[in-house]
Design goal:
Helix content: 25-40%
CATH architecture of the largest domain: 2-Layer Sandwich
Strand order of the largest sheet: 22-21-20-19-23-24-25
Radius of gyration: 23 Å
Number of domains: 3
CATH topology of the largest domain: Aconitase, domain 3
Largest sheet: 7 strands, mixed
Shape: globular
Strand content: 15-25%
Number of helices: 20
Length: 605
């Protein structure tokens, strides 16, 4: 039986000739990266467990979350990473370099058919060149640095054939927003998506990066493109190793295959709160903005900068609107300078910052304040992700046009006079409660009070907001659990050691941050049981020996908030102590149990 692109890449990096969905195997990792906020925890894990770095040439730090070095805690973490890098001969792409996932491509660390891991949850952006990239938590990254390998569960594959011609006003960002409109945040949860068809064949590297960068927002493991000759040539000129591109076998098996007519796509915008809550820009009511942002790993490429400059040229940003522009890498920044784009941006009234992730990483320009309305080219607009205001997601063309108009619009509808700017304000954030005790007892049967949180797509910013990412002490983390989840901001005050959380689909979607698991460990929460989990969150929890399990329904036991349940981790039996009723959920699988018993992935390496 033939294999998909994902299966062939994984198999070629394992000891097996072939693999199939559901197989859990060790794979060799070609490039292993850590960012500035996750890097300090990676170093801590390596030092605490006495681990070495297997191959410094394949190992690197990228400081893209806070490339201005403007935050004291980030500065400390960056310094920890620099010191470790000096002692081990590891390359550091420092605060002047740009976004790590882009640098992996630009600097030749990945190529079609390669594998890579990073503490960046958007490492799957590497699917743009036909490489298999994954965001992982600091334990996984430490393990990969030590052995050059990580365990992975082979995902099932989906094949989407993009047919037809894109309308002239539809950009790559609109393509992914239209796909989100079709599939939402969890229809393709846990799948590897392979895009093909005449529409993709014509896409440039920059366009492919834009689409691949939002696989995480679709709940997918990765979006993979078949590399064209142009992309193969680009990678061959940079690759640090010889390679042959990987293509799917003609008889490969896909769990889902669909034809999608892109000629029906329209310019789209994501409404605040959820990237998949999309609507046509022209269907959106007049929405006055306070600020606009162009950049991020999704739309910080040179083609994005050129489109932006073309729209801004000879015009001024609307009075009272702040436009922030951040190229994705220093190479692109210099291209902007050489082509005169920086002058266009500055003349129009934009703020231009040095290359990096910017607003959605909470470490640079792009954050907004409470009550502020922002239109952004970022990939996420979860509540609080880019600040305390509201964030709409759109293409660079729409964002640039909106900055000129003072409201969200398209390039063909920029008015002669902008809308009037409105001022709003918010209340200060209250002080967080003190952390609670940690429960570390290992047992295959757990019993605890249930928090039934009947919501889907609870993301990592709701669980542990990005403004706390510099915290590395587990004891401090518990006080911030769910403090960005509406209705549960006092969770840390009310939770008791031994409690169990029951939630909906796609729990833990979003960032790769380990803190979104560790904050529950800090509070003594015993487990999270959900209908499904974000892929990175699930493996972070497993690696931390924190029980996560999935279920289909609790209707049989009439589960209510506050009930006490007993859960058998090995066979999935769940007993509601209130009524004695029993149901079965999905138990631990073998690899999960092994990690759980030894106290974590790094417990006995």
């Amino acid at each position: 039986m033939g294999m998909t692109v994902t299966e062939k890449i994984i198999a070629s990096h394992s000891k097996y000739d072939s693999v199939k969905p559901g197989d859990i195997i060790d794979i060799t990792i070609d490039a292993r990266a850590a960012r500035d906020f996750g890097g300090a925890n990676v170093v801590k894990n390596l030092n605490d467990f006495g681990l070495r770095v297997e191959d410094p040439e394949k190992t690197l730090f990228t400081f893209d979350c806070n490339p201005t070095g403007s935050d004291q805690k980030y500065a400390v973490n960056q310094h920890i990473c620099r010191q470790y890098a000096r002692s081990k001969g590891i390359k550091v792409y420092d605060i002047n370099a740009g976004i790590g996932t882009h640098l992996l491509i630009e600097e030749g660390y990945v190529w079609p058919g390669a594998t890579a891991v990073s503490t960046d949850s958007h490492a799957n952006i590497l699917g743009a060149v036909g490489a298999f990239g994954q965001g992982m938590g600091d334990m996984d990254i430490a393990a990969s640095w030590n052995s050059g390998r990580v365990w992975f569960k082979v995902p099932a594959s989906v094949k989407l054939n993009l047919k037809g011609l894109l309308p002239e006003d539809v950009t790559a960002k609109d393509v992914i927003l239209n796909l989100l409109h079709i599939y939402g945040a969890n229809t393709l949860l846990g799948y590897s998506i392979e895009l093909c068809g005449e529409a993709t064949d014509r896409m440039t590297l920059d366009e492919r990066i834009t689409i691949a960068s939002m696989a995480t927002e679709m709940g997918a493991i990765i979006i993979l493109f078949t590399p064209t000759e142009e992309i193969i040539s680009y990678c061959r000129a940079r690759a640090r190793s010889a390679f042959e591109p990987v293509y799917a076998d003609a008889d490969a098996t896909y769990e889902i295959a669909a034809d999608i007519d892109v000629s029906a796509f329209v310019p789209m915008v994501s409404r605040p709160g959820e990237p998949h809550d999309t609507v046509g820009v022209k269907e959106l009511p007049v929405t006055i903005i306070d600020s606009a942002f162009i950049g991020s790993c999704t739309n910080g490429r040179i083609e994005d900068m050129r489109v932006t400059a073309e729209i801004l040229r000879g015009r001024k940003v609307a009075p009272g609107v702040v436009l922030k522009i951040v190229p994705s890498t220093d190479t692109i920044w210099k291209q902007c300078l050489d082509e005169g784009l920086i002058e266009v941006f500055k003349t129009a009234g934009a703020l231009v910052s040095n290359a990096g992730c910017a607003g959605c990483a909470a470490g640079q320009v792009g954050q907004n304040g409470k009550g502020e309305v922002t239109v952004s080219t970022g990939n996420r607009n979860f509540p609080g992700k880019q600040g305390q205001g509201s964030v709409f997601l759109a293409s660079p063309a729409v964002v640039a046009s909106s900055a000129l108009a003072g409201y969200i619009t398209t390039p063909d509808a920029i008015p002669a006079e902008p809308k009037t700017f409105a001022v709003s304000s918010g209340k200060p954030v209250s002080q967080a409660p003190k952390p609670m005790a940690i429960v570390t007892e290992r047992s295959t049967i757990i019993k605890g009070r249930v928090w039934v949180i009947d919501r889907d797509n609870i993301d990592t910013d709701m669980i542990f907001h990005n403004r706390y990412l510099a915290i590395t002490d587990l004891i401090e983390m518990g006080q911030y659990a769910f403090d960005n989840l509406e209705g549960y901001r006092d969770f840390a005050k009310r939770a008791r050691p031994g409690d169990i959380i029951v939630a909906g689909k796609n729990f833990g979607s979003g960032s790769s941050r380990q803190q979104a698991v560790d904050c529950f460990v800090s509070l003594g929460i015993q487990a999270v049981i959900a209908r499904s989990f974000g892929a990175i969150y699930e493996r972070n929890a497993i690696n931390a020996a924190f029980p996560v399990m999935t279920y289909g329904s609790f209707d049989k036991i009439d589960l209510r908030d506050g009930d006490v349940i007993t859960v058998n981790l090995l066979n999935g039996d769940v007993v509601n102590e209130r009524n004695g009723l029993i149901t079965v959920i999905n138990p631990f699988y073998d690899a999960q149990y092994e990690i759980y018993i030894k106290g974590g992935l790094l417990g006995k390496i």
